[in-house]
Amino acid sequence: MPFFPKSVAKSLSVAAFLAAACVQPSLAADQPGKGKTIRYAQSDSLGANYVTAQIVTAAFKELGYSVKLSTLSTTLFFQAAAQGDLDIATDINFPQREPAFRKVEQQATIVGGGLIKEGGVNGYLIDKKTADAHHITSLEQMKDPKIAALFGKGGKADLVNCDPGWSCGDVVDFQLDKFGLKDTVTSVRGKYEPLMVEAVARVRRGEPAFFYAWSPSWVTNTLVPGKDVVWLPTPFDALPPSVPNKGTALVSGVSGCAGGADPCRMAMASWNWNTVANRDFIAANPAVKALVENIGFPLQMWAAWERSISEKGASESHIRALAQEWLAANKPTFEQWVASARAAS
């Protein structure tokens, strides 16, 4: 699916739409944000969430708000939102961020049901070549030293886990213990992106690779489940007490689940990019609340954005172009979101 304009005329039409969205005169009643600035944050984990931040920003501006966009870690955002130094972020990963959110929930609140309409999935993957050759269809098989030795040195598998500061890594470490895998699997926690670049290279070379990932993401668009890699079903649901298990980890229709399992038991129930806002801010801005409650994008759209970013890079110009393309192609949807927000003000 192409994301960049194919002609000068198309580029001009996209630019014209965005310009019109920002400069067309509106009645005062249509501008609930007039004279107000939203201190909007985006995560320092770059992906399709940066595209949606541009779209959300366009909607805020259509409502009359000025927008100051900051990029920082989720941990720092929670602190800033609790102190009233930042207003809102729309890319907080739940349920992984639930433990940190609970510490600030008296000052901050979750708004809406998440920006991915169907939710996403998290789990463990290995390269399909090794899975097929050794009939690996479950994470539990990593208990076998012979199987584990295929993915590391010294008779233990090396599992690429999340950054040390990411709570998903704590979930993985907890599960390795609960699933009885600590004697055969080593959790490798470092900077996730460079570790995964090497894992991708190993798969491309036809070598074994074992890692934790999620979809939609650049990883699962670069290494496609069912083609390059497979998801390994977990033996049972298991999450740390600090991470609530809202629903079952059994997820239907997961493409590329090892052995063709359906449903496929993932690391946890479906995840989502949720919105968190300062409670005072959201109470004073019902238009923002209504807007966020209406915004949502299909999983396929997220996956396509992630694919484009992984193939063409994550430059600011490319991110903006993806957002502009969506805005030009989805004007009625965008206008409906804004109209609902105005009606709530």
Automatic annotation (TrEMBL):
Q: Which residues form the signal peptide?
A: 1-28
Residue ranges occupied by any ABC-type glycine betaine transport system substrate-binding domain in the UniProt entry: 37-328
UniProt xrefs under Pfam families: OpuAC
Supply the NCBIfam families for this chain: PRK11119.1
What species is this protein from? Answer: Azospirillum endophyticum
This protein's record includes keyword Lipoprotein:
no
| Protein's recorded name | Glycine betaine/L-proline ABC transporter substrate-binding protein ProX
The record's InterPro entries line, in alphabetical order, gives: ABC_Gly_betaine_transp_sub-bd
Keywords assigned: Signal
Give the source's domain of life in one word. Bacteria
